[in-house]
Design goal:
This protein is of the alpha/beta class and 438 residues long. It is built from 19 helices and eleven strands. The chain has helices at 2-7, 10-14, 40-45, 52-63, 71-77, 85-90, 98-111, 117-129, 172-187, 204-208, 212-228, 239-252, 263-272, 333-341, 366-369, 371-387, 398-406, 421-428, 431-437; strands at residues 150-151, 159-162, 192-194, 233-236, 259-262, 284-288, 307-311, 315-319, 345-347, 392-395, 418-420. A five-stranded parallel sheet has the order 1-3-2-4-5. A four-stranded parallel sheet has the order 9-6-10-11, with helices on both faces. Strands 7-8 form a two-stranded antiparallel sheet. α4 packs across α7 (98-111), α9 packs across α18 (421-428) and α13 packs across α14 (333-341). It is globular and about 70 Å long. It starts with a helix and ends with a helix. The relative contact order is 0.13. The mean pLDDT is 93.
Length: 438
């Protein structure tokens, strides 16, 4: 099945003519030569094979029988954060599906049993236990055990808060963010609940690492719970989870029948409706990191019916023209609107933003299999943040937060501190309301 999937994308592979634009921010939008790189792997390894173009050429060579699926090939293919920058950068000049080829290539290599060992071990644990918690005695609902929250579906509520972090193995910072999100929702008078110990793993790691069958099973399970728990709205705290459900589930498991929002989208709505106020000043100069799966990777997939045609033996086109996911319709305004609403904040943009933001290095299973690549990407992004003059970097994804904080751990090197955007919202709330409701 995975080979058929890969072969179905042959036309996309053949569109690549090695221009290398997939490695960088499109030239017309480059704001600083120092920050024009776009691909974390190409930037670190300086070899074309690691770029989006390199993977198109390797995939084409594979289905043509010119190379074989082996561990050496997998070492290059999996040294990629699956951030999708190559995809949107290429689409700046042509209609091509670079990310789809990258993921199909991963799925085929997984089926051939040649994925890197660190990824196989983690996927095996996910296959066996349906979660990535590091200890058997940790339960999904532990983060909220003392908060007295409603637990659905036994209790009833209109909104489900779905952190999806303990199941996916994220750490203490993500748990603290979820607790503060619960406090914010309470302060705004939102009728919400959680799934407690029944919270499922969204399948993020399985998607990132090309475990197609496992991801499909976990996605179908999660989607079934979200669709049937009796709420109208699901609020997710991680940018990666939002991108997964909104953009990837439709192909593998189906469309969510409830409104799924990232916490920044929901908080922005609460502020706009006057249900949440932020009276306290938070005095920082901040800059914001766009998480890849909250931004360019969260666009709902294009629904198109038409015909692929070839002219003059080599020029391919679609009739009628197929709409293209350019990444421009991700979640970009909500977090910025929140930052602008907090008194005392001086907000400065980095040079690579929105659909052309540079990846934190925390995706694609890279921190497990290629930790130096993960750290290299994070360090480069943290340097860009510091160069804006900000004293604080803010992000909106648990995985970005975790990888940034892991970067340089134990080295003694001073780097710009990083916070979750909900930390700032929590600080800006009425202090009495915040203390009494956490």
């Amino acid at each position: 099945m995975t080979l058929a999937r890969l072969k179905s994308l042959e036309d996309e592979m053949k569109k690549c003519f090695r221009c290398s634009l997939c490695k960088m921010i499109p030239l017309p939008v480059v704001a600083s030569p120092a920050y024009s790189d776009g691909c974390p792997a190409a930037r670190r390894y300086h070899f074309h094979g690691y770029s989006g173009s390199g993977k198109q050429i390797m995939a084409l060579s594979l289905i043509d029988g010119r190379i074989s699926a082996d561990a050496d090939l997998a070492e290059i293919v999996f040294a990629c954060t699956t951030c999708g920058l190559c995809d949107v950068a290429c689409k700046f000049i042509m209609e091509a599906e670079r990310h789809q080829v990258n993921m199909a290539l991963r799925e085929y290599l997984v089926e051939q049993g040649v994925a890197p060992r660190a990824i196989k071990e983690r996927a095996d644990r996910l296959q066996q236990y349906s979660h990535l918690r590091k200890r058997a005695d940790i339960r999904s609902g532990d983060w909220a055990r003392d908060l007295g929250l409603k637990v659905l579906p036994v209790d009833k509520a209109g909104v489900l808060l779905y952190p999806d972090f303990l199941a996916s193995g994220a750490g203490a910072a993500a748990a603290a963010g979820a607790r503060k999100t619960a406090a914010i929702l309470r302060a705004a008078g939102v009728d919400f609940g959680i799934l407690g110990d029944q919270e499922p793993d969204s399948g993020l790691f399985a998607y990132w690492t090309g475990h197609r069958e496992l991801f499909t099973r976990l996605a179908e399970n999660t989607l079934g719970k979200l669709n049937h728990v009796g709420v109208e709205t699901v609020v997710v705290t991680s940018g990666a989870t939002l991108g997964l459900i909104r953009s990837k589930y439709p192909e593998y498991a189906g469309q969510a029948r409830v409104d799924v929002l990232h916490v920044t989208e929901y908080i922005e709505r609460l502020l706009r409706e006057g249900r949440l106020t932020l009276p306290r000043a938070v005095n920082h100069t901040v800059t914001y990191h766009d998480p890849c799966y909250l931004g360019r990777q969260s666009e709902p997939p294009v629904v198109w019916q038409g015909e692929k045609k070839v002219d003059r033996g080599c020029m391919t086109y679609t009739s009628p023209p197929r709409p293209v996911n350019t990444g421009a319709n991700g979640v970009y305004e909500a977090p910025r609107s929140i930052l602008r609403a907090i008194d005392g904040l001086n907000f400065k943009e980095m040079w690579r933003i929105r659909e052309y933001a540079f990846c934190c290095g925390g995706g694609g299973g890279v921190p497990d299999a290629f930790p130096r690549l993960a750290e290299s990407a994070a360090a480069h992004r943290l340097a860009e943040a510091a160069d804006t003059g900000a004293d604080l970097l803010v992000t909106a994804c648990d995985h970005c937060l975790e990888n940034f904080n892991r970067c340089g751990e134990g080295s003694g090197e001073k780097r710009i501190p990083v916070k979750n955007i909900v930390d700032l919202v929590y600080e800006a709330m009425n202090p009495d309301a915040a203390r009494s409701r956490l």
